[in-house]
Give the backbone structure.
Amino acid sequence: LSGSGKKQNVDLNKLSFEDALGRLDQTVQALEKGGLTLSDATDLFEDGIKLARRCSELLATAELRISRIQTAYGEQMRMIEEALEDDDSEAE
Amino acid sequence: MLVYEVSQVTSYMKEVLSRDQVLRDLWVSGEVTNLARPGSGHSYFSLRDEKSTIRCVMFRNSRGAELLNNGGAVIAHGRMSVYESRGEVQLYVDIVQPEGVGELQLKLEQLKLKLEQEGLFDVSRKRPLPEFPKKIGVITSPTGAVWHDIQNVIRRRYPLVELAIAPAPVQGEAAAPGIVEAFQAINDCGDVDVIILARGGGSLEDLWPFNEEAVARAIYASRIPVISAVGHETDYTISDFVADHRAPTPSAAAELAVPSFTDLAYRITQAYQSMVSDAQNAVSTRRDTLVYLKHRLDRSGPDLDTLRLKIDDMLRSVSSRLKNDLAVKKARHESLHALLESLSPKDTLRRGYAIVQRSPGNSVVDDAAELGAGDLVSVTLAKGFFDASVTSIRSQSQEG
């Protein structure tokens, strides 16, 4: 970031939460440190607001993803479940 | 016939004992007597039953030394060996447990000591957890409440992750190999940031898989940091000691694995407010500077009133000088005029002389020879002029 808000080649709206939060922290620090030209400070401020919004959106809209890593036990369980379901459907 | 030296005998006894499968690794139960703890911090005591006594030594920092009391019943683990300078056979104790604990507990203590000595519990190898994990692997039973609790906590705290379960049995004979396989499967995934090994509460027997050496070695070998959460808060298993982090419960493990939603929301809000106030400060500071500079400019600019007075002064002095000049020049002009007057022929004319000028031409005629009869002349008198024509020329010599 190096105190200049000119790194516009990065699309702030595509950053991961971690990256966006990291950049947000850096932006806040740069603004707190001061010593920027008004135009650099304005650019940084605009980026910072976008980053804060990006972080909030990601937090608000994220949905936990659940997945399964295959293990022998997991396969056994799955086969038993399927067999039980078949039994159920046959019973109906 | 061979004759041995004493030290050869003690040395040989020591060697024989160390090779004996039973004597080099055994548990002995008995009553503690003659307990002594000199300044070295080691414990010297005897174990006895109705028939016999064994001398024992337990070195400083061994496990369970605090359980030793004269008259107390204990179970001690160690090896039989020879203290050569006295030729005494004694038990070198490394673990002491209270009398009455079960076999599993003794096994547990023994394995704990072994793994600790191997360095599996070393604090120096505990790895930090990632602050923002992207994928969390969970080794537990897919049917238990534990898996649901973990999902709920993570969904509430930090839903930005993928939660991947590697199903494993958490009880019984199949559990240890199943857990070992799950560790392998998660490590093979390549994109898991942290592993939670979890099981709900139960008896020592129920939790036993988490005290097995194979599980301990799988945790130790994991390239991904491991949080162990087995049983209730008061249960400690070997998994807890080997893992990078221990959580008192599976829900607590889930909390440990991810940052908290409210903390993050607070952090973002703080950042936002800090930026807004910095930006406002940046603008208002510059506005203050501008006002100040304008004020200074007003004060330090040219003083027009003084200049105006100065210009007036200058104008006044110029005009008085001009007036002076004019008076001087007028006086001079008058004196020149008087001089001119004095040189004028008018006085001469008044005395009766006349000026004759050729007409046309106006050249003054001062020699009659220049004229001829019939020439026209003009004659200036003291008062007035007249024109005349020459009738005759008389003589040149008359003049003078």
Notes: Chain B is about 40% helix and 20% strand. The two ends of chain B are 198 Å apart (CA to CA). The mean pLDDT of chain B is 89. Chain B touches chain A through 41 residues (CB under 8 Å).
